[in-house]
Amino acid sequence: MTAPAATRRRITAAFADAGVTGQLHAADIDTGTALGVGSDTLVPTASVHKLCLVATLYRQASLGLVDPTRPVDIPAAGRAPGATGLSAMRDAARLSLRDLASLAVAVSDNTAADLLWDALGLDTVNATMTGLGLTRTHAVQTMRELLATVREDAHGEPAALTDPAVVARLRALDPTRTNRSTPREITALLAAVWRDEVCPGEYGEELRALLGLQAWSHRLAAGFPFDDVRVSGKTGSLPTLRHEAGVVEYPDGGRYAVAVFTRAASTDVTLPAADAAIGAAARIAVDALRA
Question: Do 244 and 233 meet the contact criterion of CB atoms below 8 Å apart?
């Protein structure tokens, strides 16, 4: 449903105060009660799409189609750009598929994600999302391919990404030309993971534990600064884009899937207010659901 008018105004104001536009969907995982602001808007997912990737790995494992402990040899050369994980490391390595998934979530490791894309295939990930009823959630490129379009569109000049005219033409920000979904479908995926509908038993437990590994706490988790509230999420970032989707779990058993996608007016890389707006908007939505 659309958010009640007062809640919608507060969420929209939180975005506006931070200098961003945003879309949000939040759902009570157990009752299905939901609210949204632009929740059916098609958005570029950036690294939030890694949720789809790791969910596919564990679903395939639960069906006996993939061994998540299978080791992968990782050469030092040819890795996707990135500031974390294998993307930032210099030597050859060997890791299992599930450990690659941990890196892809915990520190948004682009190389780890690409090794999973290579192992599973874009078609398998897309077919898995379609099978779960997420017909508007679609991947068209790996992380290395996505980042290559950013370099090409900026003519190989990183400094050009501070130019609004350059940013406006980035294919990676166009949901018709890059990996995409909607806030509603991303929360549906998370709810399915928490209800054991993606993969049951030990695979479901391991997948939920993996999604709780994320190192970043400056977006979604910032809205829930309590020791007894658990936030499991996945961020996504590109020039002007700051996203996060995750599950908020309260000690009374309440479980809420939330997806927040934003785009800033400023091209600055560091915008703490924009990051904080994700947590603030999520908190407004979850408080409304709990009320």
Answer: yes
170-207 b/e with 16+ CB inside 10 Å = b?
Answer: bebbebeebbbbbbbbbbbbbbbbbeeebbeeebbebb
Beta bridge partners of 238: 241
Q: For residue 76, what are its two tokens?
A: 């030092």
CA distance 232 to 83: 22
Q: At 218, give phi and psi (nearest 5°).
A: -95, 0
Write a three-state SS string for 92-108. CEEEEHHHHHHHHHHCC
Give the CA angle between residues 64, 69, 73 to the nearest 5°.
Answer: 125
Task: List the Cα angle 244/272/27 in 5-degree steps.
Answer: 25
What's the pLDDT tens digit per position in 181-234?
999 999 999 999 999 999 999 999 999 999 999 999 999 999 999 999 999 999
Tokens of 31: 């009752």
State the Cα–Cα distance between residues 252 and 245, nearest whole angstrom. 21
Q: Phi and psi at residue 115, in whole multiples of 5°?
A: -65, -35
Helix (H, G, I), strand (E, B) or coil at 231: strand
The reported pTM is 0.96
Collapse the DSSP code of 126 into the 3-class scheme (helix H, G, I; strand E, B; otherwise coil) and give the result: helix
